[in-house]
Design goal:
The chain is of the alpha+beta class and about 170 residues long. Helix content is about 20%, strand content about 30%. Strands 1, 2, 3, 4, 5, 6, 7 and 8 form an eight-stranded antiparallel β-sheet that branches. The protein is elongated and about 60 Å long.
Length: about 170
């Protein structure tokens, strides 16, 4: 049995992956991401790319003098890894419109070799001032392999609604 190739356009074929609308993100919703182990390559690439030319990250003995017990990872890298893990869940795939605001607190050190995951809890969800859009605030807790909280951030995002119309300003 063979099938004829489809002549449908992208508009006619639904995407396999679709993120949630703000209406699908009520306050109290919680989910966990996959895990990811931080490697030496991750650290070196990030501090080189981002210009984090700080002995704390380049010099293991300098970090040890500060009481750290391994190759210390910048909080900015921890945040970036966590945000990537959130995006890999596809929760915002095609529905995210803007990252509006964030507060961030580092609770503990992250080292090369640590395995991180994120717990995402929606804390607020409301319609925005424009139709078809909503503002979602969440608390994202980043945990290591020992389930210790190492970083918490609270992003506020603009998310499409169910009645979103593309091209509307």
């Amino acid at each position: 049995m063979t099938s004829e190739p489809t002549t449908a356009t992208a508009r006619d074929i639904p995407p396999l992956v679709r993120g949630l609308t703000y209406e699908d993100m009520p306050a109290g919703q919680v989910f966990r991401t996959a895990r990811r182990t931080i490697t030496e390559t991750d650290l070196v690439n990030f501090i080189t790319w981002g210009g984090f030319n700080e002995p704390l990250f380049w010099d293991a003995s300098h970090a040890a003098d500060g009481g750290y017990t391994g190759r210390l990872v910048p909080g900015a890298l921890t945040y970036c890894i966590a945000e990537g893990l959130v995006l890999q869940t596809n929760v915002l795939h095609g529905t995210g419109l803007a990252f509006l605001h964030m507060e961030l607190t580092v609770h503990g050190p992250v080292y090369v070799g640590d395995t991180l995951y994120a717990v995402v809890e929606t804390t607020k969800s409301r319609p925005s001032g424009k139709p078809g859009r909503g503002v979602v605030t969440s608390r994202i807790t980043v945990r290591n392999q020992r389930d210790e909280d190492v970083l918490v951030y609270t992003p506020v995002r603009l998310i499409r609604g169910r009645d979103y119309e593309a091209g509307t300003p």
